[in-house]
Each structure stands twice: as C-alpha cells, then as structure tokens.
C-alpha cells in the first residue's frame, strides 16, 4: 500500500511527522532534533508533534529510555497507529467529574495557592478590595512520553476568568530546560520546589525596586553603579 507523502502540507503536522519517520528515518534508525527541524522548517512545534505520536502506540526512544543515545538523538523503534488516516489520531477525552474529596486534595497539594498568580485563599488582590477565591481547574499537560493528560490545578477566580482553562504545560520541553541547567542551578531549583517557594536574594529585591523606577532614576542608579566600580 502506497503511503501519502510526508511533504503534503494539506495534512496535519503530526501525520506528516509520522510519515517522515516511516519513509525517511525508518524503524530502528536514529534521527536528531536538528534533522527533524530541518525537514519541517515550516512547522513551529514539530518536536511536540513527534512526542504526541507516543500516545498512539509509536515507540520513539530518547536518551532517557536508551542511555546509549546522545541528548540530541532519538531512535524510531516501532510504528504505531496510522495517524494519517481519519479517526486514527483522536486524542482520548478527559473525565469531567471531580468529587468534593478530590477537590480538597488538589487544594491541599497546591498549598491553597493559585498556581498562576500565587495568591492565597482569602488574600486581597493588589487593588486591596476584592479577596481571592480559589477553585480547581483542569490544565492540559503534554507528558514527557508524548501522551496528553488533563491534570487538576488550583487557580483563583480572576485567573480562570482570564483564560486559565486555555493554558497548557509542555512537561517534556520543561524537563529539557531543567536538564540544560548547571548542577548548582538544578540544586537551587530543587530547593525552591521542596519549599514550594523562592526566597528572594538581596540582588533580586534590588532589581524588583529598580525596575519600578522612572527613567531618570534608573539612569541615576546606573551611573552610580558605574562610579562605584571605577
């Protein structure tokens, strides 16, 4: 059976990526992110489309699954569903039910803080008038293995009304950024994650004040720093 061309731009990018793997890379062979992005220079998030194939039975290993691979390499191990055929690329729908107990657990796990703006339950917003009300929303998460999940997260009423339900998290991309940090930076991040807060250093606090200054005052601070370093 003749397969469609992966260069057919009338198809979705996920289907094209699958056909590229079958036609160009072929099962068992390696490919790099650079090769993928060169082949699909017209697609902004082609890495994500390849990760999504795993949710349809495609086995694509990275250095996490195969230690013999370099960080930029991936191995096309096995073909899955024919996602270029209508109906084969359907993403499973998430459940809509949430019990009172489950809702309480989500709020507790999030330390009763809005995970978008950081406000706590009953705390005033910057206007000093309205108090924050927390609720539980669903957030689309693109998992590291390419599958899509819908996970519960705490958000305040303002953030939800401001488009919180449209947000999504690319966990795989985030983990790549973490992997690229230095050891010291990862330890610092681990500390913030364990405490679920980041303590500002004196330099952070100074920067927070500086960025609020009018232009003339910012210029005065910059000149003072230059004079101090002479």
What this model shows, in words?
It is built from nine helices and six strands. The chain has helices spanning 13-25, 33-39, 46-52, 100-109, 157-161, 171-179, 183-195, 202-210, 215-228, and strands at residues 30-32, 59-61, 73-78, 134-142, 148-156, 168-170. The longest helix is centred in the C-terminal third of the chain and has 14 residues, at 215-228. The protein is extended, with a radius of gyration of 23 Å. The termini are far apart. The relative contact order is 0.09. The model has no long low-confidence stretch (mean pLDDT 86).
SSE layout:
Blueprint: H1 13-25, E1 30-32, H2 33-39, H3 46-52, E2 59-61, E3 73-78, H4 100-109, E4 134-142, E5 148-156, H5 157-161, E6 168-170, H6 171-179, H7 183-195, H8 202-210, H9 215-228
Parallel strand pairs: 4-6
Antiparallel strand pairs: 1-3, 2-3, 4-5
Helix pairs in contact: 1-3
């Amino acid at each position: 059976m003749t397969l469609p061309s992966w260069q057919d731009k009338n198809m979705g990018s996920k289907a094209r990526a699958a056909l590229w793997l079958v036609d160009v890379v072929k099962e068992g062979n390696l490919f790099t992110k650079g090769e993928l992005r060169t082949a699909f220079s017209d697609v902004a998030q082609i890495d994500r489309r390849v990760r999504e194939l795993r949710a349809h039975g495609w086995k694509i290993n990275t250095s996490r699954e195969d230690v013999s691979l370099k960080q930029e390499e991936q191995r096309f191990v096995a073909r899955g569903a024919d996602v270029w055929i209508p109906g084969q690329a359907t993403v499973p729908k998430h459940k809509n039910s949430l019990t009172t107990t489950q809702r309480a657990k989500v709020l507790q796990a999030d330390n009763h803080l809005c995970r978008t703006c950081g406000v706590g339950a009953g705390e005033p917003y910057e206007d000093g008038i309205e108090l924050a009300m927390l609720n539980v929303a669903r957030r689309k998460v693109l998992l590291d293995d390419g599958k899509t999940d819908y996970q519960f997260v705490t958000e305040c009423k303002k953030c939800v009304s401001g488009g919180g339900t449209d947000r999504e998290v690319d966990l795989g991309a985030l983990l790549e950024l973490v992997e690229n940090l230095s050891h010291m930076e990862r330890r610092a991040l681990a500390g913030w994650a364990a405490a679920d807060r980041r303590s500002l250093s004196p330099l952070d606090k100074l920067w927070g004040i500086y960025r609020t200054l009018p232009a003339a005052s910012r210029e005065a601070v910059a000149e003072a720093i230059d004079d101090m370093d002479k």
